[in-house]
Specification:
Number of domains: 1
Number of helices: 0
Number of strands: 4
Largest sheet: 2 strands, antiparallel
Length: 65
């Protein structure tokens, strides 16, 4: 995965604490992301995660509403 400083309008993101968050644009700056699972049973949305997430220097606030 490559990291650009340009917001990708194809990937919406509200997680302010991610290193790849575009700030006020509410988008990811990666060209693509990987989605992973958090447990063996993936019958619920809560069982998935953005596996491309990396904690940035913006603090630890999620920004979710």
């Amino acid at each position: 995965m490559s990291h650009e400083n340009k917001a990708n309008p194809s990937i919406k993101c509200s997680v302010n604490s991610c290193a790849y968050h575009s700030g006020t644009a509410g988008m990811c700056t990666l060209q693509e992301i990987s989605v992973g699972c958090t447990c063996k049973d993936v019958s619920k949305c809560e069982s998935t995660e953005c596996a491309s997430f990396q904690l940035g220097t913006h603090g630890t606030s999620c920004g979710c509403k």
